[in-house]
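ok trying again, last paste got cut off:
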Amino acid sequence: MTITLVTGANKGIGFETAKQLVALGHTVYVGARDAERGEKAAAELGARFVQLDVTDDASVQAALARIGAEEGRLDLLVNNAGILANESLDGPAALHAFDVNAVGVVRVTEAALPLLRESDHPAVVTVSSSLGSFWAVTNPDRPEYGLPLALYAASKAAATMLTVQYAKAHPGIRFNAVEPGATATDMTAAFGIGRPVQESARVVVRLATLGADGPTGTLQDENGVLAW
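nice, full thing came through this time. structure:
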């Protein structure tokens, strides 16, 4: 049985990723800030809820401590929680964007490392974005070229770099970042773009379920390794 934690899993790509992993036989912990929404999502999925706010150290530590007490290990961590951060471009907004999208990855990953080391085939997948790719945002032929989401792009670039550095520091654990594709979620509603969430979640699940000999330290989309 694969023990899995998905952060930000009460809706959107996180919810659908958790759903698909449950269908594959994983024991999935649905991490969510809001207890009511998280409990409801977990019940619908046949998963387990754990209160987890990626911006709160105590919340993160408590969530991983609970998983450790109940399971003794963690096989797969999906760092999915994130925000678009497009309301304003100022200091407080920048701090919040990086706190959720980048520092949150550090908080959860660091807390999870002891449990990941107890797994035979540990893996971490971070939901990043091609908007954090210098190659993509400077290429006029790419859709990212015309999306001026400075804080989201910068914080996702940081999340991808963290993935690479974690992969180098912990060769016994597979770390990969994923661009799931433009998806119709609450985050993209203002732009009126995106495909069904089920399709994008499949991209995350594919990378999350690669074998022990799979790649590490990469940013991938549904077509494979993505330049960044």
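cool. The longest strand covers residues 27-32. The chain has a mean pLDDT of 93.
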